[in-house]
Amino acid sequence: MGLRVHEIFRSIQGESTRAGWPCVFVRLTGCNLRCTYCDTRYAYDRGEDMAVEDILERIAAWNCNLVEITGGEPLIQEETPVLAARLLERGKTVLLETNGSRNIGEVDERCVRIVDFKCPSSGESSANDYGNLERLSPRDEVKLVVADRSDYEFARDLYHRIRRRGVTSPVHFSPVFGILAPSRLAGWILSDGLQVRLNLQLHKFIWDPDARGV
Ligand SMILES: C[S@@+](CC[C@H](N)C(=O)[O-])C[C@H]1O[C@@H](n2cnc3c(N)ncnc32)[C@H](O)[C@@H]1O
Ligand SMILES: Nc1nc2[nH]cc(C(=O)O)c2c(=O)[nH]1
Ligand code: SF4
Ligand SMILES: [Mg+2]
């Protein structure tokens, strides 16, 4: 069995509450969605089939406590929860970046599940599994990627819904890179007094925004 892996690399974590920390990334191949703004289309195909043990060995080459499983969409591969569990067993802090369309309950709760529910301009918001709202633990995080004002209003409604349910997970609002100016999103957040975190993709400021493997 194993997993189809597009790339494994070490970089600076560019997003989430762990932004700024060195992090090893396992980018899995394939995605069930086609977001209009996707910056990782190159991971829709190709890659190498690897056994979980081989992936663990590659990760161990770096002395790094933080590991993120991303893609593509990690939860379309059956063995992703096994990889997360094995990394947790090794004492790693494990982040899993997922598009919100699959059941996050398949993945160990000790893993930080970063759930990116899709806003309308992605073209994929009908894929959101809102059952995941019930499955979020305080350790998990929600990320909402915003391209324009109507996405913002959708994200704001979802944020209020999350808090009304008593879910305390951090919520990030992230502008689509090169499409929505961070200052506009910042202005909307501040004028509505939302307690959300403005998430900028740090790696796109450190390196060329089109660079792979960073
Ligand atoms: C490439 S996806 C992989 C994980 C999963 N498929 C998902 O969508 O969450 C990683 C993150 O990058 C975000 N992303 C993709 N393209 C982006 C862009 N052009 N600007 C800002 N964020 C983007 C996605 O919304 C997601 O939060
Ligand atoms: N540096 C860096 N940080 C990231 N955080 C989430 C990423 C992703 O593509 O899921 C990502 C990425 O692609 N690069
Ligand atoms: S779900 Fe993630 S990887 Fe898939 S198309 Fe959307 S942003 Fe890209
Ligand atoms: Mg990325």
Automatic annotation (TrEMBL):
List, alphabetically, the Gene3D superfamilies matched: Aldolase class I
Q: What does the record give as EC number? A: 4.3.99.3
Keyword line: 4Fe-4S, Iron, Iron-sulfur, Lyase, Magnesium, Metal-binding, Queuosine biosynthesis, S-adenosyl-L-methionine
> Which PROSITE patterns does the record associate with it?
RADICAL_SAM
Looking up Pfam families in the UniProt record yields: Radical_SAM
Q: Which residues bind Mg(2+)?
A: T40
GO MF, any single term: magnesium ion binding
Task: Give residues annotated as binding substrate.
Answer: I12, Q13, G14, R27, T70
Q: Which CDD domains match?
A: Radical_SAM (cd01335)
Pathway(s) of this molecule: Purine metabolism; 7-cyano-7-deazaguanine biosynthesis
Q: Which residue positions does the secretion signal occupy? A: none
Indicate which residues the UniProt annotation says bind S-adenosyl-L-methionine: Y37, C38, D39, G72
The protein's required cofactors:
Mg(2+); S-adenosyl-L-methionine; [4Fe-4S] cluster
Keyword S-adenosyl-L-methionine in record: yes
Residues given in the record as [4Fe-4S] cluster binding sites: C31, C35, C38
Catalysed conversion reaction: 6-carboxy-5,6,7,8-tetrahydropterin + H(+) = 7-carboxy-7-carbaguanine + NH4(+)
Top enzyme class of this protein? lyase
In its UniProt record, which GO terms are filed under biological process?
Answer: tRNA queuosine(34) biosynthetic process
Q: How is the cofactor bound?
A: Binds 1 S-adenosyl-L-methionine per subunit. Binds 1 [4Fe-4S] cluster. The cluster is coordinated with 3 cysteines and an exchangeable S-adenosyl-L-methionine.
Q: Which InterPro entries match?
A: 7-CO-7-deazaguanine_synth-like, Aldolase_TIM, rSAM, rSAM_sf
Task: Name all Radical SAM core domain ranges.
Answer: 18-209
Q: Which HAMAP family match?
A: QueE
Question: What's this chain's function?
Answer: Catalyzes the complex heterocyclic radical-mediated conversion of 6-carboxy-5,6,7,8-tetrahydropterin (CPH4) to 7-carboxy-7-deazaguanine (CDG), a step common to the biosynthetic pathways of all 7-deazapurine-containing compounds.
Q: What family does the entry list?
A: Belongs to the radical SAM superfamily. 7-carboxy-7-deazaguanine synthase family.
Protein's recorded name: 7-carboxy-7-deazaguanine synthase
| Gene this chain is encoded by | queE
